[in-house]
Amino acid sequence: MPNFLKAIIMTVVAFGSIYYLTGNSAMAMGLSLIPLLLGLVRVMHGFAYSLAALCLIGAVAWSVAPAETKTMVRAEVEKTGVKITAP
Questions:
Q1: Which pLDDT tens digit goes with each residue over 57-70?
Q2: Is this structure's pTM higher than 0.90?
Q3: Is residue 84 part of a domain?
Q4: Cβ neighbours for 47, distance < 8 A, ≥ 6 positions apart
Q5: I need a labelling partner for 79 at 20 to 30 A (CA). Which of 32, 40, 41, 69 fits?
Q6: What distance in Å separates the CA atoms of residue 85 and residue 24, rounded to the nearest whole number?
């Protein structure tokens, strides 16, 4: 698979995961540019792909977490000023 195609796939995965967690498209776009740029310049592939994978794992874990866990985490995160909009 060509290198630029891997970078684009990882960018889409990261964008979708971050957007699911935060609901903020600007934040999702900014953070998803990291795997894209690092993948396109062929530097630090492991870090770029790990970042996208970590975002995906976080989104999946959040989607299967019990409701009381989500409520507790939401309360703690909102103390920092960040709003979690994922259901």
A1: 999 998 999 989 98
A2: no
A3: no
A4: 38
A5: 32
A6: 9
